[in-house]
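Structure first, sequence second, as always.
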C-alpha cells in the first residue's frame, strides 16, 4: 500500500479544507468481492450509510461530513480542489478519505465501481459551489468533528495522526 496526503486550499468557489485528502493506493487486493469487503471494513471503523455507484461528473463537496470512497472496480481520472485543482488517477483497490469541503468530480472512467460512506452514517449534503452557498457552508465545515477512526486503518493510524495536528497554511 502506498499513501499520499494532499492539501487543497480555498479557490474562491470550492472551500476545500485545512485537512488533507488521504489516498491509500492499492489498499485492498484484487480478489473476492471488493465492494462487500470495503463496506464491511468501513462499517467496522464507524463509517456507514454506505452506497455503491460512481462519482458525479461535476464539481461538488459536502459541508456537513467527511467522505470515504473505495474503488472496487475499474479506474478513473478524478479532479480534486475545484476547477484548477489536481487530477488523480485511481483504480481498483484504492481508498480516498475526503475532508468536508474538498471538491471532487469524475473526469473520465473505465468500468468504475465505488463504495462511499460517512463517519457516523451522516447523510451528506451536496453543494456545487453555487453563489450564495458560502459563508453558510464554511460555518458547517468548521463544525464537522474529526472521525473517531480512519475508515481504512482504524483507531491507531491514518487520519487520526495526520488530521489531529494539521500544518498551518
Amino acid at each position: 500500500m502506498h499513501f499520499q496526503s494532499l492539501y487543497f486550499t480555498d479557490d474562491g468557489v470550492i472551500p476545500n479544507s485545512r485537512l488533507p485528502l488521504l489516498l491509500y493506493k492499492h489498499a485492498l487486493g484484487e480478489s473476492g468481492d471488493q465492494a462487500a469487503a470495503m463496506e464491511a471494513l468501513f462499517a467496522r471503523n464507524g463509517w456507514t450509510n454506505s452506497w455503491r455507484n460512481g462519482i458525479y461528473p461535476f464539481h461538488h463537496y459536502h459541508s456537513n461530513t467527511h467522505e470515504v470512497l473505495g474503488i472496487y472496480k475499474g479506474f478513473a481520472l478524478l479532479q480534486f480542489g475545484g476547477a484548477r485543482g489536481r487530477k488523480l488517477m485511481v483504480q481498483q483497490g484504492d481508498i480516498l478519505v475526503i475532508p468536508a469541503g474538498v471538491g471532487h468530480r469524475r473526469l473520465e472512467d473505465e468500468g468504475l465501481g465505488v463504495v462511499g460512506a460517512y463517519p457516523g452514517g451522516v447523510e451528506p449534503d451536496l453543494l456545487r459551489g453555487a453563489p450564495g452557498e458560502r459563508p453558510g457552508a464554511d460555518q458547517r465545515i468548521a463544525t464537522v468533528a474529526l472521525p473517531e477512526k480512519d475508515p481504512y486503518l482504524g483507531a491507531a493510524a491514518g487520519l487520526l495522526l495526520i488530521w489531529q495536528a494539521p500544518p498551518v497554511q
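Margin note: The helical segments are 34-44, 136-143, 159-162.
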